[in-house]
Amino acid sequence: MKRIVVTGGAGFIGSNFVRYMLEAYPELEIVTFDKLTYAGNLDNLKDVDEARHTFIQGDIADKAAIKAAMEGCDAIANFAAGSHVDRSIMGADDFIATNVTGVYNICEAARELGTPRVLLVSTDEVYGSIDEGSFTEASPPRPGNPYSASKAGGELIALAHFNTFGTPIIITRGSNTYGPYQYPEKVLPLFVTNALDDEPLPLYSGGENNVRDWLYVEDHCRGIDTALRKGRPGEIYNIAGGNERRNMVLTRKILELTGKGEELIQFVKDRPGHDRRYSIDAAKLKALGWAPRMDWDEGMALTVRWYRDNEWWWRKIKTGEFLEYYRKQYHER
Ligand code: NAD
Ligand code: DAU
């Protein structure tokens, strides 16, 4: 592969993927195509090699624009999405435009241009919650909120595209991802940056009930790269961190690493339709040679240190639009 298009490459996982791929493949050229929504941020790509990286501001819901960007590429990896569950509960129009229509546009452009490989980044949330055991790729999707339903909708369109037209779609379903450059609306960077400022950590539902499986962002990127290069078109691959933790355990870890006390924990009203536990089995991707490498304690220490050392990055974000969202999401709760 010589040239790949990364949609949503100015977001959290997308920007880590761009950096990872440019470092892993010295001949590779990347075109990042991103709408720069509230979550897109060119600061995330500040340190990438400009000689092999081009940025285009554009919307995947605009078919002509995404098709023009994809012309002549060897592959596309789509990270562009509305990605936050709480925002999708406030209103899901943008989620449907990007996560369903945008994905359809990518499939159509790939069919028309003959793009050799189309990797769609999806989520373990499409399975919904599981009380015991883990979902495999054969488990049916049962999404439980507007975000995950829109992601499942995009997946179904794409799989039907493969079935009908042979478009070479590969889907990955990653678990909860953490690391540098994550927009501070998600629980981990929100709690870390709030704790550093001695602000309350708004924990839903007592924190003891809900379980997430934490995946370090570089492990997620390597998993996507493995599926992109070695995966079979028409197939789905789970990418699991193997670190299931109750939200209270995560919160206490953040307090320990920031040197703060439990008085910062503030129990707030639950998220409507809150999925209790996510758990997926990644044996299928492991059979292609991937395995997560980051130990949870080490990944958490690295991540908290990154936010501590990079206030320039998150202080700019926690202003304006963010404060407006925060007020709606938490003060009126
Ligand atoms: P993010 O919100 O940090 O980034 C999303 C990026 O997409 C932003 O740069 C934004 O500007 C861009 N974007 C949004 N709508 C667009 C549009 N219509 N056209 C072009 N660009 C657009 O999200 P993230 O956490 O990095 O997630 C990336 C992908 O990974 C998403 O598809 C998400 O569903 C999936 N995923 C995320 C996690 C996680 O824990 N964060 C886990 C599994 C899967
Ligand atoms: O599982 C993969 C998914 O993980 C991705 O597809 C999504 O894009 C990503 O946002 C994430 O979804 P979650 O809903 O699991 O992540 P979030 O960080 O919003 O919440 C994690 C847990 O923390 C969840 O149980 C809700 C809880 N929470 C979250 C926030 C924002 C709180 O208790 N308080 C909060 O303020």
Structure characteristics:
333 residues, alpha/beta, Rossmann fold, 7-stranded parallel sheet, 42% helix, binds 2'deoxy-thymidine-5'-diphospho-alpha-D-glucose
Can you walk me through this structure?
There is one protein chain. The chain has 333 residues and is an alpha/beta fold. Helices cover 42% and strands 16% of the residues. It has twelve helices and 13 strands. Strand 1, helix 1 and strand 2 form a beta-alpha-beta unit. Helix 1 (12-24) packs across helix 7 (217-230), helix 6 (187-196) runs parallel beside helix 8 (247-258) and helix 8 packs across helix 10. The protein is globular and about 55 Å long. The structure holds nicotinamide-adenine-dinucleotide and 2'deoxy-thymidine-5'-diphospho-alpha-D-glucose. Nicotinamide-adenine-dinucleotide binds next to helix 1, helix 4 and strand 5.
SSE blueprint and pairings:
Layout: E1 3-7, H1 12-24, E2 29-34, E3 53-57, H2 63-70, E4 75-78, H3 85-90, H4 93-113, E5 118-123, H5 146-165, E6 169-174, E7 177-178, H6 187-196, E8 201-204, E9 211-213, E10 215-216, H7 217-230, E11 236-239, E12 244-246, H8 247-258, E13 265-268, H9 283-286, H10 296-309, H11 311-317, H12 320-331
Parallel strand pairs: 1-2, 1-4, 2-3, 4-5, 5-6, 6-11, 7-10, 8-13
Antiparallel strand pairs: 9-12
The structure holds nicotinamide-adenine-dinucleotide (NAD) and 2'deoxy-thymidine-5'-diphospho-alpha-D-glucose.
